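Duplicate of #3305? Posting structure anyway:
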């Protein structure tokens, strides 16, 4: 049986970032994942994610976002690959929008934002929009488009001999954590589990605290292609009357990618098929037609994203949808990473380093908001 110091189960952005950080520090680490880069499954599949420096979800995220930005630039320098394209990020909502207000507050911590602040101003600056004149708007100058697939390749460059392309299960034993695949078994001293929607199957104690939802993603042939070009049209997050949608400029030549950010129907971990129907994308299509008519048009491609989010905590209350980055209380050899889908990808370079710290340094701990002890069921029962 092979041995290693640290195994990483799941090599999406979080797991690959953790493996990258471990190997860069000279650790004896192996990664396990049956999916190859480019596979149409997994929380990190697809070409792009939004990078926001200022985040409406939590005040703690701005410093984390800065650390992630440095991580992405270091990854680009080390790999020679471009992984982060600079882009304006525009957020908009009705007067008094809590989302816009929170992003403005986050921006104020780091020197503020610049650009349109009302719907009327946004419509002039970006002609693809047709927002109500009195809407609240905030524009981030330091946002970007995270090239997710390119980042995965950069993390894995040079690490092929440390990657086992197989699904894995884990079994804690006194001698270590046994990693079982269809073809071999490996004994690890510690394991990082970063398996996206499959994490509840690997760590059953987590399952009760997680919710998986199916999110429909579409690419739309824009009515006014000139108004949605990369560099002239921002990444957008718009809180409309039907819910929150987000999208990208046409930076790939395949149309405007847009999706609903509000949680979709609750599903299992393998609900990737079939592709989204027109009905599933109706809310996005209608919102584009009403609020971003320059970006609206026929659906030319479609995909499914699964969000894996935490439920509301009870011991140290939070509102849910928060990261889990922590050691299991009853077996600290097992480190779990379940960053909330929908706003975790942009932080992967920083969270991977945090996971490596937890695996290598017994004194390291995650931020309080990310710890498992916020759930009464995850309090330590030792002693």
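Output from current build:
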């Amino acid at each position: 049986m092979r041995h290693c110091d640290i195994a990483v189960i799941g090599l999406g952005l979080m797991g690959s970032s953790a493996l990258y950080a471990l190997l860069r520090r000279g650790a004896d680490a192996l990664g396990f994942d049956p999916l190859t880069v480019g596979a149409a499954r997994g929380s990190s599949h697809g070409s792009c994610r939004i990078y926001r420096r200022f985040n409406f979800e939590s005040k703690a995220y701005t410093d984390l976002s800065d650390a992630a930005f440095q991580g992405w630039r270091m990854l680009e320098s080390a790999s020679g690959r471009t992984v982060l394209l600079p882009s304006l990020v525009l957020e908009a909502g009705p007067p008094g929008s809590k989302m816009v207000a929170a992003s403005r507050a986050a921006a104020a911590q780091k020197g503020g934002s610049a650009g349109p602040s009302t719907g009327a101003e946004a419509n002039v600056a970006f002609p693809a929009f047709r927002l109500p004149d009195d809407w609240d708007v905030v524009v981030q100058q330091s946002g970007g488009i995270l090239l997710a697939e390119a980042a995965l390749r950069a993390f894995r460059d040079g690490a092929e001999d440390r990657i086992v392309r197989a699904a894995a299960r884990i079994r804690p034993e006194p001698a270590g954590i046994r990693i079982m695949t269809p073809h071999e078994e490996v004994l690890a001293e510690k394991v990082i589990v970063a398996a996206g929607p499959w994490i509840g199957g690997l760590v059953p104690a987590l399952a009760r605290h997680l919710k998986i939802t199916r999110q429909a993603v579409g690419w739309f042939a824009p009515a006014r292609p000139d108004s949605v070009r990369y560099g002239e049209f921002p990444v957008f997050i718009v809180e409309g009357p039907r819910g929150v949608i987000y999208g990208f400029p046409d930076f790939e030549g395949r149309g405007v990618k847009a999706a609903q950010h509000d949680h979709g129907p609750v599903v299992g971990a393998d609900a990737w098929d079939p592709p989204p129907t027109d009905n599933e994308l109706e809310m996005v299509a209608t919102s584009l037609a009403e609020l971003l008519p320059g970006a609206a048009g026929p659906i030319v491609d479609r995909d499914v994203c699964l969000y894996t989010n935490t439920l509301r905590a009870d011991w140290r209350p939070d509102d849910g949808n928060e990261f889990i980055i922590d050691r299991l209380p009853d077996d600290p050899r097992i480190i779990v990473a379940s960053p909330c889908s929908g706003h975790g990808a942009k932080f992967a370079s920083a969270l991977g380093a945090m996971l490596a710290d937890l695996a290598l340094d017994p004194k390291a701990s995650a931020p309080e908001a990310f710890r498992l002890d916020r759930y009464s069921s995850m309090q330590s029962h030792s002693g």
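Confirmed duplicate; merging threads. Residues 61-79 form the longest helix (19 residues). The domain at 2-43+150-203+312-378 is CATH 3.50.50.60 (FAD/NAD(P)-binding domain).
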